[in-house]
Specification:
363 residues; Metallo-beta-lactamase, Chain A; 7 helices; globular; metal-binding; hydrolase activity; hydrolase; MBL_superfamily_lactonases; RibonucZ/Hydroxyglut_hydro
Length: 363
C-alpha cells in the first residue's frame, strides 16, 4: 500500500518566515495508561521528552516561546505535580530548564517578547517567574475565567498554576471569535500572530478547554505544526486513510533513522487493536485522563491528522519521544530545511513503532 499525501489549503506566503528551535527540557516517565488506552504489548511505560520551542521572526525582530516545558524547581514549587507523579509511580527528570538553556546560549531572557502556553498543565508552563515582566504571557480562550487556571496559587487555592507567573505581567487571552480573527486553517480558527503569515496560533480544544497549537512557516511553502498535547504518541495520529502504513517501512523503526534499513509492516498487524484495518487505523486512543471534551478533541485530532498527511507540514507533539533521534536541538540547529532529503518527516513518521519492539520481536 502506497502512502497518500493530502493537498492542504495552507496560508499563502506573504514574504516572512520564522526560525524554530526545539529544546528538550527534561523527561517524564509514567505508565503508558496515563496517556493512552490499552497500551500495546511491550509498551507498558512511557518515557517521554518535554519540548519547548523558540520561535524567532527576524523581519519584525521578535522572539517568542511556544511551550515552556518543565521548571527545574518543580519539587519545591509544584506540590500538586509531586503528588500526581507519586500517585502513578512516575518520575520527572530535569537538569536544565528553558531559562538555563537560553542563558547558556547567550539568549537574554529579556529578549523574549512573549511566552505562549499551549495549555496550563505544569509540564508545559515552565517557570515564567524567572523572566522579566516585559515578557507577556499568551493563553488560550477561557483561561482567565477558570479558577483552576487563574489567578493561580495561592490566590486560587485549587488552581493548577502559580500566581507568580502572572504577577506584574500582561496576560493576553486569545479571542478567536473576535471580528479581527476570521481566519481558519484546516477547519481551526486561527490568529496570524505577527500579522505577516509566518506564525499562526490555532484554537485546538479537547485536551483542555484552553488548548492551542501553533503553525510556524519555516520556508515559503513548508511549515511545522507545534501540536502541544493534542496527542501524546504518534500512534494516536497514525496510520490513517490519508497516511496509511506502507507494506515496507523504511527506515525500520528499530534501526537508526538515517539507515537504509526496512521492515515489513505486517510485523505489527497482530498487536494492532483492529488487525483487519491495521494499515489505516491509529494504534491508540487517548486515555480519559487527557480528554477534557471528547467532542472538540475529535475535531482537533482530525485537523492534526490532516496536517500530518501533508508533505508540507512537519508535526511535532510536545512529548513525542519518537523524534528524539530525528530532530536536532537548540542551540545546535533549528528546523529550517526539515524537508531536505532524507527529510525529518520521512525519518520520523513510523518511528513510534519502536515502542512496540518487545511485542513484535522475539529476542
Amino acid at each position: 500500500m502506497s502512502e497518500v499525501t493530502s493537498p492542504l489549503p495552507l496560508p499563502a506566503f506573504k514574504g516572512s518566515t520564522v526560525r524554530v528551535s526545539v529544546m528538550n527540557t527534561g523527561y517524564l516517565v509514567t505508565p503508558s495508561t496515563i496517556f493512552v488506552q490499552s497500551p500495546r504489548p511491550g509498551h507498558d511505560t512511557a518515557d517521554v521528552p518535554i519540548y519547548s520551542f523558540l520561535v524567532e521572526n527576524e523581519r519584525v525582530g521578535k522572539k517568542v516561546l511556544f511551550e515552556l516545558g518543565i521548571m527545574k524547581a518543580w519539587k519545591e514549587k509544584l506540590p500538586h505535580l509531586v503528588s500526581a507523579v507519586q500517585s502513578f509511580s512516575g518520575t520527572v527528570n530535569v537538569t536544565e530548564d528553558v531559562p538555563d538553556k537560553l542563558n547558556a546560549a547567550s539568549v537574554s531572557l529579556s529578549s523574549i517578547d512573549s511566552a505562549i502556553w499551549s495549555h496550563h498543565h505544569p509540564v508545559h508552563t515552565g517557570d515564567l517567574s524567572l523572566f522579566p515582566t516585559s515578557t507577556s504571557l499568551v493563553v488560550g480562550p477561557g483561561f482567565k475565567s477558570n479558577p483552576s487556571t487563574y489567578p493561580g496559587k495561592p490566590l486560587g487555592p485549587n488552581a493548577e498554576t502559580l500566581h507568580e507567573a502572572f504577577e506584574g505581567r500582561e496576560v493576553i487571552e486569545l479571542d478567536f471569535s473576535s471580528s479581527a480573527s476570521t481566519l481558519e486553517i484546516v477547519g481551526l480558527r486561527a490568529i496570524d500572530w505577527f500579522d505577516d503569515g509566518s506564525f499562526y496560533l490555532l484554537e485546538a480544544p479537547g485536551h483542555t478547554a484552553n488548548h492551542i497549537m501553533a503553525l510556524a512557516r519555516t520556508s515559503a511553502d513548508k511549515f511545522v505544526l507545534l501540536a502541544g498535547a493534542a496527542a501524546h504518541h504518534g500512534g494516536e495520529i497514525r496510520p490513517t486513510p490519508l497516511t496509511p502504513l506502507p507494506d515496507t517501512i523504511s527506515p525500520s523503526p528499530f534501526e537508526p533513522p538515517t539507515s537504509a534499513s526496512s521492515c515489513p509492516s505486517s510485523l505489527f498487524q497482530s498487536i494492532h487493536p483492529s488487525p483487519e484495518s491495521f494499515r489505516t487505523t491509529p494504534f491508540y486512543e487517548a486515555s480519559a485522563h487527557h480528554i477534557d471534551d471528547p467532542v472538540t478533541r475529535i475535531a482537533t485530532l482530525d485537523a492534526v491528522k490532516a496536517f500530518d498527511a501533508s508533505p508540507d507540514v512537519l508535526v511535532i507533539l510536545s512529548h513525542d519521544a519518537s523524534l528524539l533521534e530525528v530532530l536536532e536541538f537548540f542551540p545546535k540547529a533549528d528546523l529550517a530545511g526539515w524537508e531536505k532529503q532524507p527529510s525529518r518527516k520521512d525519518m520520523g513518521r513510523w518511528r513510534f513503532l519502536k515502542d512496540f519492539r518487545k511485542g513484535v520481536l522475539k529476542e
